[in-house]
Specification:
single chain, 174 residues, mainly alpha, 7 helices, globular
Length: 174
């Protein structure tokens, strides 16, 4: 019940800043996506998606949207778009993306997380703050790993790191 209310508040927030929000059962490599033109957010749900996962995915994508509004005046970030295109092209051709393009991606992810705490407060989230902080650290860790290695983390690496980060943040608040 509480998570349903939080999800609805986040959906209302998204609509309030002029974006569309949709949910999809379509299989995707990511749990959510923010459109670069700042028109909307899509949350990809599976049978394993928990409500807190949905809340955190929404906060993640809203962070990108709010960052775009405040730092880019709702304009398309062509530098970020070029970096994403470069990364996609390199991967399609079996090449490592250039480090400077990976850096643009990392910087964009870090910039989006800068808004998570204020969004948590503005939308009156009730879940423990350590979960937000653990999600932030985990998210940045994944992008930093990609930046440094040009490789994506494995499921085993993600599970190990997620457990380590969750224990670290949980212990700070218990």
């Amino acid at each position: 019940m509480i998570r349903d209310e939080e999800i609805q508040r986040l959906i209302n927030y998204i609509k309030g800043i002029g974006l569309k929000v949709s949910f999809s059962n379509k299989k995707s490599d990511c749990s959510a996506m923010w459109y670069l033109d700042n028109s909307g957010i899509v949350i990809y749900k599976t049978n394993n998606t928990s409500k807190i996962d949905t809340v955190l995915s929404l906060l993640h994508e809203i962070g990108h949207a709010v960052c775009n509004i405040h730092e880019k005046g709702r304009q398309l970030d062509t530098k970020f778009e070029k970096a994403l295109d470069h990364i996609d092209d390199a991967e399609e051709n079996g090449l490592d993306p250039e480090k400077r393009q990976r850096r643009v991606l990392l910087d964009n992810e870090i910039a989006g997380t800068a808004y998570w705490h204020s969004l948590y407060k503005e939308t009156n989230m009730k879940f423990p703050i350590w979960k937000l902080e653990a999600a932030m650290e985990f998210d940045i860790w994944q992008y930093r790993y990609f930046y440094e290695t040009a490789k994506y983390t494995t499921k085993r690496q993600r599970n190990k790191k997620r457990k380590e980060i969750r224990e670290k943040h949980r212990s700070k608040y218990v």
